TrEMBL record:
Protein name: Helix-turn-helix transcriptional regulator
Pfam families: HTH_31, MLTR_LBD
PANTHER family linked: BLL4672 PROTEIN (PTHR35010:SF2), BLL4672 PROTEIN-RELATED (PTHR35010)
Organism expressing this protein natively: Nocardia fusca
Gene3D superfamilies: 3.30.450.180, lambda repressor-like DNA-binding domains
InterPro entries (alphabetical): Cro/C1-type_HTH, Lambda_DNA-bd_dom_sf, MLTR_LBD
């Protein structure tokens, strides 16, 4: 592990990101370019102290999961992502692994969808990126550990009355089928295998559905989202494919003039995310 070089690369990458690109206010009190350390920590789901230690070249060896979270938070290209893996003494994600890096063009699309909640999902339904309306609708994904930023994990293992619960036409069997499809496509991906093992051991319902042997995929549908303040919102949920990265963009919307459309407008107000 080359701590000094890794520290320099991380600091430089952080300085290149404009706050507005990732939903933070630019403000007038920023004294250095780019994001603050606490903002990268929030995006990556890591502690500020750990980010400080890494950028000062004195952090412990980061896990592959942490490196992936940093690569996404810093919006690194494939080559830059591979660089930080190698500097940390790890092998970069290789062939047969689920792509976890969101392309800059997809991030720009997410930024343009400022009026609608939108998420970017991996092939195993990891929430890789989201915009502020999605955080206001579904909860702040940055507050969760990276391993729990997964729609299927939340459906079967997530807990707590304050969390938004998505219901509707997409059944649990469809969710399980998506993972089975991903397993057939990425049989050597260790993170996928670990997710399936955790779900099977932790959720009898998931295990029952898994043993049924069905495949599936995400589909555009109507979904009901139970929001803790606004109640049940009936939304059109459209699935946009990014085939080269094997990722999907999920966009929630409602018909003009409906009660749900008015509720979405309320979610855009400051302080809702």
């Amino acid at each position: 592990m080359d701590r000094a070089e890794l520290a320099m690369v991380l600091r430089t990458a952080r300085s290149r990101i404009e706050p507005a690109e990732v939903g933070f206010a630019a403000g007038s009190r920023r004294q250095v370019p780019g994001l603050r350390r606490e903002e990268i920590a929030q995006l990556a789901g890591l502690s500020v102290d750990y980010i400080v230690r890494l950028e000062q070249g004195r952090g412990s060896k980061p896990s592959d999961q942490v490196l992936g979270a940093l690569a996404r938070a810093l919006r690194l290209s494939d080559s830059d992502r591979d660089l930080i893996f190698r500097l940390a003494g790890s092998e970069p994600p290789g062939i047969g692994r689920i792509p976890m890096l969101v392309r800059p063009s997809v991030m720009r699309l997410l930024d343009r969808l400022a009026g609608l909640p939108a998420l970017v999902l991996s092939a195993k339904s990891d929430v890789l990126a989201w915009n502020p309306p999605a955080a206001a609708l579904l909860g702040d994904w940055s507050a969760l550990p990276p391993a729990q930023r997964n729609l299927i994990w939340q459906r079967f293992l997530g807990a707590g009355p304050d969390r938004v619960v998505e219901t509707g036409e997409q059944s649990g069997a469809d969710c399980v089928g998506c993972l089975r499809t991903a397993q057939a496509r990425y049989p050597q991906d260790p993170s996928l295998a670990g997710l399936i093992d955790e779900l099977r051991s932790g959720s009898p319902r998931f295990d029952e559905l898994w043993r049924a042997g069905r495949s599936g995929r995400l589909r555009s549908r109507t979904a009901s989202v139970v929001h803790p303040e606004l109640g049940t919102l009936t939304l059109d949920c459209d699935v946009l494919s990014v085939p080269e990265a094997d990722q999907t963009v999920i966009v929630y919307s409602a018909g003009t003039g409906t009660a749900t459309a008015s509720a979405l407008e309320l979610l855009r107000l400051p302080g809702r995310a």
